[in-house]
Write the structure tokens for this entry.
Amino acid sequence: MNKFKNILPPILSIILAFAVGAIILLLSNFNPIESYKSLFNGAFGSAYGFSETLVKMIPILTIALGTSVAFKAQLWNIGGNGQYTLGCISTLIVCVYLPAPMWLKLVIALLLSILVGMIFGGLLGLAKAKLNANEVITTLMFDYIIALFLSFLVYGPLMDPDGHNFPQSKLIEKEVLFDKLMVGTRLHSGLFLALFLVILLFFFWKTKEGFRIKMIGANPNVAKLSGISVNLQIMLTMGISCAFAAIAGYIDVLGIHGRLQDNIAGTLGSVAIVVALLGNLNPIGIIFSAFFFSALTVGGQCMQRFMGVPYSLVTIIQALVIVFVVASKIIVEKRSKK
Amino acid sequence: MNAIEMRSITKRFGSLIANNNIDFTLKKQSIHALLGENGAGKTTLMNQLFGLSIADEGSILVEGKPFKLEHSPQDSMKKGISMVHQHFMLIKNMSVCENIMLANEDENFPLLNPKQTKERIIQLSKKYHLGVDPNSIIDHISVGQQQRVEILAALYKETKTLILDEPTAVLTPEEVEDLFLILKELKRNGKSIIIITHHLNEIMDIADEVSVLRNGDLIGSTPINEKTSTKELSRLMVGRDVNFNFKKEKTNSIEKVLEIKNLSYKKEHVKLLDNINFNIKKGEIFVIAGVDGNGQKELCETIVGLNKCENGSIFLNQKDITKTNVNHRIKNGISYIPQDRQKSGLVMNWSISDNLILKTYERSPISNKFFVSTKEAQNQATRMIKKFNIKSQDNNDRANQLSGGNQQKVILAREMDRGPALLIASHPTRGLDVGAMEYVRNQMLELRNKGGSVLLISADLEEVFQIADRIAVIFKGKLMGILQPNCGVAKIGRLMAGLDEEEINE
């Protein structure tokens, strides 16, 4: 009964969002049924479409897992983009410039991404704990700083000398990149790493450390009286949260990009926030919501191509889902208080 | 004609009667004090007058004219009634003038007139010696000045009756003197004032009349004059027959479980604990009695390990724990029932079973090297719910679905089940119904009889006399004396009011 109660609001929200989307389609003289059919076919109708949905899901899922860790502790890390980019940069530097055997490059790049994420998050956590620097502002501001740093790198020291002055880095050697899972698609073995992280996080919440993070989020006063160092936990939580996003960067660079390019993160970070919330901050829930959002993205592009429906409709549906999820949470909370 | 008359006011919250058939009369141009312990119903009564809550029964007259029970604060202000709350309702990053304009938007609607507002502020400030500068930002002025801004805001609305809810709780002694001068000036200018307090000496200083509330009942009203004594007031506040025959063989242990030496604690340069010395022996209930806000909370939090003390040392079972953290102290047998169970005692939207393991989740059998076992937590919960008689439908009921008494039992279960060497309980029975109250007291006695020690913070003298082995009285962060429970109510009342001091030999 309890589980059903948790799943119902997001599902109802999605249905409602599509219903409102249909009205908008009607008003703009599109056939909603045909449009939605095209959206569905785009995401699931072909092997290639489906593989693209999975490819897009990997970074969204991984960043959203990290976001959910911070959110559980009531820390609003909204800088997924910047942290993802840090992972991308670390990975590229190791894989292109470190003279080492292939397998070692993979391991070192992963460890470095995690380390950079942990340190970055830990410092933001320290600023929050000691100086009361609001993490919403620090994480968001660092998004810009890191994005500009990335521009500096790809226009400057890391620019590919044979790249005709394109703002991009050298390519990583083919042998280092992740294997493709299906011929003719971009789906790569990074998917398994992402799914492994889901399992890891699922069990993390059952550990003592997971319990502490939940406690500082639920009531910091009680946490203090229970012998927990809240400041240390804030640093740890931010560190873990940022490390997930950095791993997402690692996976994407080795799985699809193969190099650094300007604005590599796109809108992944903001989508991940929504995905984490829609998934109820639960690792398993986040798989479903990440899958849903990436299907919307892939299908929406298809709908635009074949039906002429502007891609912004997808953005509208995404936004409506958020509005309804937030609204339903408030309603449920009010009810349970009575 | 009286400024305010409240007749037969009754207010219930569920089964709790917060105000029981109370008559209250405020004479014009006088200062009337409402005296009573926390939870006695003082603020509730005033909230009904001001319109923040609605009385169930009774009637209210303002200057002889009936005023409907169901009214809003806006209605009250139109009738000339204003209230200064304990927590100020000012916007911190705005100036005094802006705050006043915000509360008087309709003055020049739709425009504002800062010049005129400032002039009136200066004029009022001069008339009543408030010393308020209309241009200063609220965040930059002292708490005492903020309070005067609140008073000025009321005067700005041409208030006739001013209600002050524990106005001195946040002030330094000098600021209290200033406030009292202002209140006397207001009275001289024809205002009527109600002041909620539980400090006896303040009443003697300033009030013309006092009404004493206890557990929702009006105990009596009396004018203050040369004949009134604080002794009489303390008897009014404590008043009831105290039941001395609760217990229990005497403890003879000399083994010290807790020893506090020269403990001092400062917060933002204010000395909240001043050279405190006492010890608690094995199998003893040591009570710290006193009016709220005299350092009890700080003392508890310092012993628990939340505050770093400035001076002095704390010994637990002869071991110096002054420098250790909260976690270390929990593991060495200190349990704590905080005063505010909803804010500091429980995670309200967590299940009972999760709340029960907050302090033991790291230990076997609830967790192994890495994982917290949900199953074992459930087993423990089932056992503790039974042992401590917590009334719930299910282990997974959330804490906010429980009644106050059962919430307290969850905390009690968590803190007692570990078999603590020392239980610190801060107002553990406050706000509970009689049954739960008795249960909590019995649990503390049982712990004592089994050889545990209890440090009980209480303002409820009945409770103090029922279960204490020794009683210390705290006043302004200092221990005024350590007494035996047969010392008598009057003696304790005097110490609580800071009128007397005993030699402490420990």
About this structure: Chain B touches chain A through 31 residues (CB under 8 Å). The mean pLDDT of chain B is 87. Residues 427 and 458 of chain B are 5 Å apart (CA to CA).
